[in-house]
Amino acid sequence: MKRKMVLLLSVAMSVLCFAGCNSGPSDAPSGTARTEKAQETGAEKEKTDETAGSSAGADEKTEPAGGYDYGDVSNIKIGMLFDNCSVEARIRQRDKMQELADELGFTLLVQDAQMDETAQMQQGENLLSKGVDVMMIMAVNYEAINNLVKDCNAEGIPVICYGRLIYDVPVSYMVGSDNTMIGHMESQYLLDLMKPEPENPQNWIILAGPFTDSNCSIWYDDWFEDIQPYIDNGSINIVGDSQVEAASTEIAMKLTENFLTACNDDVDVILAVSDSIATGAAQAMAERGLLGKVAITGLDAEAIVLKRIAEGTQSMTISMRDFDFAAAAIDTALKVASGKEGDIAVNGSFDNNAGEVPAVLVEPEVITRDNLYEKIIVPGYASLEEVYADVPKDQWPVQ
Fold this sequence. Notes:
Layout: E1 8-9, E2 33-35, H1 56-62, E3 77-82, H2 88-104, E4 107-112, H3 117-129, E5 134-137, H4 146-154, E6 159-162, E7 173-176, H5 179-194, E8 202-208, H6 214-232, E9 236-243, H7 249-262, E10 269-272, H8 275-287, E11 295-296, H9 303-311, E12 317-319, H10 322-337, E13 348-351, E14 356-361, E15 365-367, H11 372-377, H12 384-387
Parallel strand pairs: 1-9, 3-4, 3-5, 5-6, 6-7, 7-14, 8-9, 8-10, 10-11
Antiparallel strand pairs: 2-13, 12-15, 13-14
Helix pairs in contact: 1-10, 2-10, 3-4, 5-6, 7-8
C-alpha cells in the first residue's frame, strides 16, 4: 500500500511547507473517462492528424460556424460560468465563444467568479433568472456548485460541465479533456526527460493545484502513479510537496522559496500543475540563479511561459487547444438548445457518481521548444514576435 501524506494547504498570510518526505496520492474523488473513436462522417473525414500540428481538422469537427445548420438560434441564451477569467487560457476561450455568438446570432451571457465559489453560485442564480436555455459551468468548487446544478435540474435547464466534472448531481454533458491524460502527460514527460536512477537520485518539488478543483486531485494521483516506483527505489526524493491555494503565482513563489531554502537549493525538478504556479516557481528560482537549470512543467500555454520555453528556461506546458475547446462547448450547447443532441460529437463518458455523463473530449498537446512554432504560432494562439521577443532573431524558427 502506498504511503499517504496530507498535503499542506497554502494560505496567503501563512505559507506552511515541509521537505524531504515521500508523498502519496490524495483522498479526493477520482474521475476517469472512457474514450472511444468518434464515427467519422462528413467534415470529420477531412480531419487531419493532430500530431502533425494542424488545428484545421479539429476546427472542422467542432467549429459551429463550419457549416452545421443549427436553424434559427436568435432566441437561444447560453449561460457560461467561468472560474477565473484572469487566466489567459480562459480569456482565449471566452473571446472565442463571444466571436461565435456574434457570428451565429445567439446570446451568450458570461460570468467570471474570480475563484469565489459564493460569487459563482450567485452568478448562476442570476443567469437562471435571465432565462438561459443551457448553463455551462467551469466550477470553482465542484462540491459547492451542487445546489446550483440542482436548481438548474429543477427548472429543466441542461447543465454542461466545462473543463471540470461536477460530481454527485445529474448533468447533461461534459466538454473538456480526458482527465486521465493531463497529470500523466506532465509526470511522464519529466521521467522521459530526466531519467531518474537510484545511482544518481534527484530532488523533486511537487506543486499541486487546490483540491477543490476536482481535476487537481486527479492529476496529483496520476503523478504519483507514475513517480512512486522511482520514490520507492530511491531515484526520486520529494523535497517539497504542497497544494497552492487558488493556483496563485505569489503563493507558489513563497512555497518554492521555502522548499529551496530547506534543501539548500539542491533541486532538479519542479512538477507544477499549471502555468500560474510554474511562474511563481520560476520567479523564486530566478532570484537564486537556478532558472534554466531545473526542469519545470506547466499547463495552459500562457504567454509568459511560452516565452520561457522559447528561451529554454521552462521545459514544457500543455495546451488545451483553447479555440477548439471553446468551439466544442458552443457546438454542444447549441445542439442541446436546438434539440439536435443526436448530432453532438460524443467521444467519451465520465462517471460522476450520479450516472454516466456523455463527454466531448478535446485532446490536449504537450508544448516544448521543439514544437512551439507549429502548435502555438501557426494556429494563432500567440504571435512569433511575442513568444520569441527575448530570443536572438537568428534563432527564430523558419517561417
